């Protein structure tokens, strides 16, 4: 045994032997965060009525969470590198549980919005810590593929599970349980993580915190997310909306300039300028734009046009969940060690695009079995297959000291993509719906005919926006194929894990 290995044998061995147990608790925490993104949507109408939240302010229940989460992710990733991933992970879980209890017990609008912002802030600590723990604990190529397959399936399918769970809790219990349900998830995951996770030593980044970078990145991302959120409600030509986009561009440009100059940057530019990681962040962010818009349209289509209950709507998403799990844990995991990642990502995004293309054929009376079900299966299979190598490659080649911030970039691309997708596609759909109704309402002479025109207008709006989503997925595939040039993992080679890492921790070497 080498001197280096003797210095850290227990830590490395513990981290290695407990990695699969640790994955259970990391996956549970990830599921909780992803569930929360959709579970509250179904409960929102009931919560709004109980708490007396105005129609103008109800969007803030969603926006407060998105702003805090999206704006603080890079900061959370850097904290996990500085403070330790396990400690950050457990702190994030405990804080998320406390914020969820506050939201469930909310007695008014201010308390609810404060709880949602706190949830987002602690989620920004938790999410990058979870992904970077996987990156430093699973270093064998085959095991890494399995671990990221499970993680990718949860990241992709958890949102749809949230619709089912949210429907059940809202319909049969009370909207407050959509918050309280997070508490057992968080407590079990935190306790398990505390006792099971053994983080390998030597991966900390103890450089002083880049305060200007924190301020500029947080304000820039908050401006960007809020700009898209406001565009959805107030229009793209609104003066404040334009001002937010301009401010975001200036702040993020200043952030990039600062990061290129300071000694210990919040986001080292080496993390995003590496071709493969940059391609992953961009293609994944674009794919999420398409997915988030689809969740929104399908939920409205099934509940308003088809008349499904919240619970039935949730179950209607099961084929997509199934497809994501199969695509991620079976197709992606089995092929990731045999083929280059881009040969999974690009075809995966294209397969999802075919599923999305089927949905452009939606009509008021479309059959679930012959149209919606196969479309969802294709979407799920494609996204699951693409997400799995994307999640793994997001931390490809990074030094352990940068693992947290590289993981935060994946979550940032997803959060910003989700905000853009919801606003952009919803605006396209609303515009197409208005245009259709204006063109056809004059010919509807009776009330039933007018209602039919309105429903057809909604469907026309959805399909118009879904065409854009198809184009976005094709663009995601093109970016993945062009930028992600790394080859399949070398199953035999080992290498040093980077500066500050234990010399004999195995990491997959990627053949270029």
Automatic annotation (TrEMBL):
The keyword Glycosyltransferase appears for this protein: no
Domain named Major facilitator superfamily (MFS) profile: residues: 22-488
Transmembrane segments: 22-44, 59-76, 88-106, 118-138, 150-169, 175-197, 209-228, 240-258, 279-302, 314-331, 343-362, 368-391, 465-484
Compartments (UniProt record): Cell membrane
Xref: PROSITE patterns: MFS (PS50850), SUGAR_TRANSPORT_1 (PS00216)
Entries under SUPFAM superfamilies matching the protein: MFS general substrate transporter
Major location category of this protein: membrane
InterPro entries noted in UniProt: EmrB-like (IPR004638), MFS (IPR011701), MFS_dom (IPR020846), MFS_trans_sf (IPR036259), Sugar_transporter_CS (IPR005829)
Pfam families linked: MFS_1
Membrane disposition: Multi-pass membrane protein
Domain of life: Bacteria
Protein name: MFS transporter
């Amino acid at each position: 045994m080498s001197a280096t290995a003797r210095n850290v044998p227990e830590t490395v061995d513990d981290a290695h032997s407990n990695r699969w147990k640790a994955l259970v608790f990391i996956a549970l925490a990830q599921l909780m965060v992803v569930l929360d993104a959709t579970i509250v949507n179904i409960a929102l109408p009931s919560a709004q009525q109980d708490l007396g939240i105005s129609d103008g302010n109800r969007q803030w229940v969603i926006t407060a969470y998105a702003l805090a989460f999206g704006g603080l992710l890079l900061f959370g990733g850097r904290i996990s590198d500085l403070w330790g991933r396990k400690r950050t992970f457990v702190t994030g879980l405990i804080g998320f549980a406390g914020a969820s209890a506050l939201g469930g017990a909310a007695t008014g609008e201010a308390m609810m919005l404060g709880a949602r912002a706190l949830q987002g802030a602690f989620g920004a600590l938790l999410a990058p810590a979870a992904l970077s723990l996987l990156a430093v604990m699973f270093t064998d190529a085959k095991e890494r593929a399995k671990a990221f397959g499970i993680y990718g399936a949860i990241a992709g399918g958890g949102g749809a599970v949230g619709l089912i769970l949210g429907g059940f809790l809202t319909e049969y219990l009370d909207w407050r349980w959509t918050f309280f349900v997070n508490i057992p998830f968080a407590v079990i995951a935190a306790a398990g993580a505390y006792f099971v996770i053994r983080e390998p030593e030597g991966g900390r980044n103890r450089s002083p915190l880049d305060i200007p970078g924190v301020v500029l990145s947080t304000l820039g991302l908050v401006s960007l997310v809020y700009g898209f959120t406001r565009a959805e409600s107030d229009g793209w030509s609104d003066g404040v909306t334009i001002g937010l986009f301009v401010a975001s561009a200036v702040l993020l440009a200043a952030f990039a300039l600062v990061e290129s100059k300071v000694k210990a940057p919040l986001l080292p530019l080496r993390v995003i300028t590496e071709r493969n990681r940059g391609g992953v962040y961009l293609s994944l962010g674009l794919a999420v734009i398409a997915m988030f818009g689809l969740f929104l349209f399908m939920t409205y289509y099934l509940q308003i046009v088809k008349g499904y209950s919240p619970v039935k709507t949730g179950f209607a998403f099961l084929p997509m969940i199934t497809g994501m799990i199969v695509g991620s844990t079976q197709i992606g995991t089995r092929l990731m060690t045999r083929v280059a990642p881009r040969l999974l990502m690009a075809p995966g995004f294209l397969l999802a695009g075919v599923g999305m293309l089927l949905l452009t054929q939606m009509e008021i009376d479309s059959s679930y079995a012959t149209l919606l079900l196969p479309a969802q299966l294709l979407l799920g299979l494609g996204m699951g297959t693409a997400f799995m190598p994307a999640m793994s490659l997001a931390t490809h080649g990074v030094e352990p000291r940068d693992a947290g911030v590289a993981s935060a970039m994946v979550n940032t691309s997803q959060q910003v993509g989700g905000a853009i997708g919801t606003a952009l596609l919803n605006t396209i759909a609303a515009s197409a719906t208005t245009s259709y109704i204006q063109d056809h309402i004059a010919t509807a002479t009776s009330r039933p005919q007018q209602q039919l025109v309105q429903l057809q207008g909604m469907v026309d709006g959805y399909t118009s926006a879904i065409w854009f989503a198809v184009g976005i997925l094709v663009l995601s595939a093109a970016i993945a194929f062009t930028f992600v040039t790394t080859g399949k993992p070398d199953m035999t080679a080992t290498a040093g894990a980077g500066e500050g890492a234990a010399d004999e921790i195995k990491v997959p070497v990627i053949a270029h």
